[in-house]
Amino acid sequence: MAGESVTVSQGHFVGTLRRDAWWTEILPAALLLGAFGIYATFRAFEGAYYTWGPYLSPFYSPLIDPQHHFWPWSPALLILAFPLGFRTTCYYYRKAYYRAYFMDPPACAVGERKRNYCGETKFPFILQNLHRYFLYAAIIVLGFLWYDAIIAFFLDGHFRVGVGSIIMLVNVVLLSTYTVSCHSLRHLVGGKIDCFSCTSMGSPRHTGWRAISILNERHMLYAWCSLISVGLTDLYIRLVAAGVLRDITIL
Amino acid sequence: MADAILEVFRGDRQGGKTEQYRVPVAPGMVVLDAIHYIQGHLAPDLAVRWNCKAAKCGSCSAEVNGRPRLMCKTRMDALPLDQPIKVFPMKSFPILKDLVTDVSWNYKINKKIPPFTPRPGTDWKVYQDDVDRVQEFRKCIECFLCQDVCHVLRDHDKFEQFAGPRFFVRVAGLEMHPVDGKSRAKLLRDELGIGFCNITKCCTEVCPEEIHITDNAIIPLKERVVDQFYDPVLMLVRKIRGVNEDSK
Amino acid sequence: MTTKFETHEHDVLIIGAGGAGLCAAIEALAQGASVGVVCKSLLGKAHTVMAEGGIAAAMANVDRADDWRTHFRDTMRGGKFLNNWRMAQLHAQEAPDRIRDLEQWGALFDRTSDGQILQRAFGGHTYKRLCHVGDRTGLEMIRTLQDRGVALGIDVYMECAVTRLLKDGDRVAGAFGYWREQGRFVVFKAKSVVLATGGIGKIYKITSNSWEYTADGMALAYEAGAELKDMEFVQFHPTGMVWPPGVQGILVTEAVRGEGGILRNKNGERFMEKYDPKRMELSTRDVVARAIYTEVREGRGSEHGGAFLDISQKPAEYVKKKLPSMYHQFLELADVDITKGPMEVGPTCHYVMGGVRVDPETAESTVSGLYAAGEVAAGLHGANRLGGNSLSDLLVFGRRAGMAAAQAAKKVRQATIDQTQVDKAEREMLAPFQNGNGESPYAIHRDLQETMQKLVGIFRVEADLQQALQELEKLQERARRMHVDGSRMFNPGWHLSYDLQSMLTISEAVTRSALARRESRGAHSRIDYPSLDATWGKQNNVVSSQKGTMMLRQEPVPAMPEELQKLLADEAEAVAGKGK
Ligand SMILES: Cc1cc2nc3c(=O)[nH]c(=O)nc-3n(C[C@H](O)[C@H](O)[C@H](O)COP(=O)(O)OP(=O)(O)OC[C@H]3O[C@@H](n4cnc5c(N)ncnc54)[C@H](O)[C@@H]3O)c2cc1C
Ligand code: SF4
Ligand code: SF4
Ligand code: FES
Ligand code: FES
Question: What is the mean pLDDT of chain C?
C-alpha cells in the first residue's frame, strides 16, 4: 500500500505530524499572562484604592510620594518597573511568552514562522542577560513587601488579624519562594562554583545551592502561584479600599 | 492480539512517500520491534539505525506520530492503534534513506569543543558532592533527539552558528567538572551560539535520559556567559584584578 | 598498486570503535603512528556503551586487602584454569593504572567518602573491586575514550563494515569493506591491523547483545588464516529480562545482585542456597545461570519461565540512585517497579570467552601484523569470564595491541594490495543481488538462532551437537543461495547477508569445539559429561581453516611459573578435576 508522495519537512507555520491538540499547551499561559497584563496596567495607572488601614497593595510598595509633591502620576509607575522587569527577564516567563506570544516555537515539533530569528543575541532580547540585576532589585522590593505584610497585622498599634493580613502574608511567602528559586540566585549562591570542596565556604554554599536547586525544580509553579497571588492581593485591597468589600477581623 | 498499521516514510534525499505495513502486536512490543518485523517479513531493505534495543546507545531516534522518540523505548500499547502509526526520520537532519538521517554535523560540532583539561597540580581527590551535577550530563547517549526538536535548528537552520542542546550538555559537563581548569564561556557565546537558545525547553521534554538540559545545563551556562561578558560589575572587577578570560 | 575503489592508507588500521578499539587507537597515536578506525555503526554506539556494572581493577579503595594477586587468582579460578596465565597476570597488574588513565581523561566514577573511586562487589570477585558509575559504566568509558580520541584527532570511518582482510603473502596488508550508507566499496592499506570487533551474541535467539555482534572479527581472522581458541565457551548471563517477549534477553545487570538483590523461585525459596551456599547470588555466572535454568526446568520457575530477582528490600531512593537504568528499564518496558516488587529474570547469551588466539604480551594473532583485543580475542577469561573483567580487558589489552601494532608498523613497509583478493571480495559481496530466487537472509538468520538456542545452549549433549552440525550445513547451503532485493544504499537485508556468513562460520566453530570438549567446565556444560576432566583441564581447543575446511585440534594450556602456581596452590587441583 503506497501512500501519496510526501515531503518530510512539515516546515510551514504550525505544521506538524503531532496528533494531539498541542495548542492546549500554550492557551492557559497566553490567557493568564494576558489577563494579568491588562489588569496590572489598569491598576498601575489608576493611582487610587491602593491602601486601606494597615494594608498596602503590592503594586504600590514601596509607596513613594503618594501626595504628589514631585511625581504627578500614579506612584505605582515609580516602582513597578522592578518587579515587572524581574518577571519579564525571568527564565521561566521567557519560555512562557516566547512560546505563547512569539510562537518561537508554538509547541515542540510544531513549525514556526520562517523569519530572521536571532534568539537572545540581539537587542532587545540580549538585555535578558541582565536578569540578575532585576533579581537584586526584586530582593529589595521583597524586603518592603515583608515589612508591609508584618505591619498589616497591626491596626492603630494593636495586633489584629484580618482577612487582608492573611492574604498579604500568603502573598509574600509565595513571592519569596518564587524569588528564592530564581536561576540567577542559584548561580550566584553556588552554581558558578566547579569544585565545592576546593572553595572556601564551599560546604555552606553547596548546602545553599542544593536547597535552591530543589526549589528551582518548581520555579514554574511558584511563578504562577505568586503571579496570581499578587493580582488577587491587589484586587482584594482595591475592593476593600473602594468599599465594595468589608475586611473581616478574624482575631 | 490486534494488528497495527505502521505508516513509514520510504525515500531518500530526492524525496519519497509513505508506505503502510500491517504488523501483529505482541505484549510489551515497542515501535522498533514493529520495524524489525517489517524488515524481517515485508521489506528487507527498510533502512533504520539501531544497536542495543535497550535505550542505551541512542541510535534509533525517529519521529513517531510527530514526536521525536527512541523507537526502542516507545511502547506500541501507549499509542492509539485505531489510526496508522506514523514513523518518520528526524526532521532536522538530511535524509539518507528511509528512517536514517545524516547526523555527521553533530560530530563536526563536537570537535570544536576543547577537551577536558585538568588543572595543573591536581591531586585527583574528587568528592561525590562535586560530581553529582556533572554525572547527570554524562548520562547523555547522543541520540540527538534534542538537536532534532530544537527550533533553532529545526525551523531556523542555524547549523552554522548554533551547537544545539546536546553540546551545551557536553560543555556543561566539562565546565562544571571539578578538576577541569579551562573556561569555555567565550566559545559558548561566539561559536556555539548559546544566545540563540530561547530556553523554550523542548530539548528537555524529549530527552530520553531525562537530563534537565535547560535548567541544569543551558541556564547555568548562560549565567556563566553573563559573568564573563554581560555583568558590568564583574567585568570591572576582573579588569582591575587582571584575570585572564581563558581560565576559570 | 591502485584499485578502482576509494583507498585509504594508515600505519595502523583498527577495526572496531568499542573500548578495545579506541584504547588501541589512542595508544597507537601516542606512539606516533597514523591511525584509522573503522566501525560498523556511529562512533560512540559500540557495544561497550551498554556495559553497566563496572570495571574490575584491584585498586583497593574500598577493601584495603585487595591486590593484583587476588584479582589474578579470582580470574583464574573463575576461568577454571583454562585462562592464559600471562594474560590474567598482566590484566590484574595493569588494570588499576588504566582506570587512572580514564580518570585523567575526564571520566567521573562514583566516589568514596574520602574522594577516591568507589568500588562495588560482583560475582566471583573476593573483594569490592568494580569501579563504576551507577549502572552506566560502559557509557562513561566509551564517552571518555571517544572524547580523548577526538581530541587527539583520530580518523574514524563510521558506518563502514570490513568484510575481508587482505594479505600480502603471510602478512596482513589491509582490509576491504563497504560504506553502509552508499554501499560503495572501500579498501584500506595498513602495516598493522587490530581487530576489536566484539562478540558473537547474535547467533543466539535470546541475547543481551546488539545487532553488531555477528562474529565478524573472528570470521575475518579465521578466513585470513588465524587461529581461534576456546570457542565452546559462550557465557550465558544468568539475568536477562524474560517478559514481555519484545524485551526478552535484555540484560539485567549483575550490579543488582552486587547491591544485594536476592534470587527466589516461585515457591519463594532462595535457591542459591542449594547451588552455592557460600557465595549465594554472587557466585560466578555459569553457576547462577545453570541454577536458574535448573529451577525452571524442574518446574519451580516463574510464570514466564524465569526466576525472581528482588532488590525491593533496599530503600527506594538507594535503588534509584545506584541502579537508575534498571529502574527505568523495568518501569518503561515491563511495567514493573523494581523498588516495590521483584523482576523476572532468566539466562541470556551475553559474552564469548573464546576468540582469536593471541600472544599475551602483544595481542598479535597467529597471522603476522594482525592483532586482536577485547571480546574478539581469547585467553584472558578461560572457561568463564567474571563480571567487570571485560571492560578492564579492553583497557589493558586494547592499549597493548595498539602499542605493539604501532611499533611493528615502524619496522615494515606498506605492503601491496593484491587485486585478485579485492576482486574476489567484491564478487562475494555482490553475489546475493545476483542469486535468482533464494531466500531472504532474515529467514536464514531466524533459523540459525533457533538452532543454536535449542541445540548449542546452556546445557549441551552429544546428539544435539551432532544435529546442530547437520543443521548448520543445511543453513550454509541455504545461505549460498540467499537473495537480497533493493539497491546498495543503506540496505539492511544486504548487510545481514554478509553478517550471516560470519555467524554461520563461527557457529560451526562453537559447535565443533563444544562437541570435542567432553566434560563440563565453566560456561560449557555437557549433560552427558557432567563433571570436570583432568585431561581437558590442561588443554584448549583451537580452530583454524585448512584449505577451506575447519580443523580442530588441542593445545596444552601454557605452564605457569612457580610463584604464580603458589598463589593458586590450594584450589588449582580441586578445580582441575581430581575426579578422573
Ligand atoms: C548489556 C551488557 C552489559 C555488560 N556489562 C559489562 C560490565 O558491567 N562489565 C564488563 O566488564 N563487561 C560488561 N559487558 C561486556 C562488555 O561490554 C563487552 O564485552 C565489551 O564492551 C566489548 O568491547 P569491544 O571493544 O571488544 O567491542 P565493542 O564495544 O562491541 O566494539 C565492537 C566494534 O567493532 C565494530 N565492528 C564489528 N564488526 C565490524 C566490521 N565487520 N567492520 C567494521 N567494524 C566492525 C563495531 O561497529 C564496534 O565499533 C557487558 C555486555 C553487555 C552486552
Ligand atoms: S531550550 Fe534552547 S536548546 Fe533547548 S530546544 Fe529550546 S531553544 Fe533549543
Ligand atoms: S541530551 Fe538527551 S536528548 Fe540530547 S542527545 Fe543527549 S540523551 Fe539525547
Ligand atoms: S529565573 Fe525566574 S526569577 Fe530568576
Ligand atoms: S537501539 Fe539503542 S537506543 Fe534504541
Answer: 94
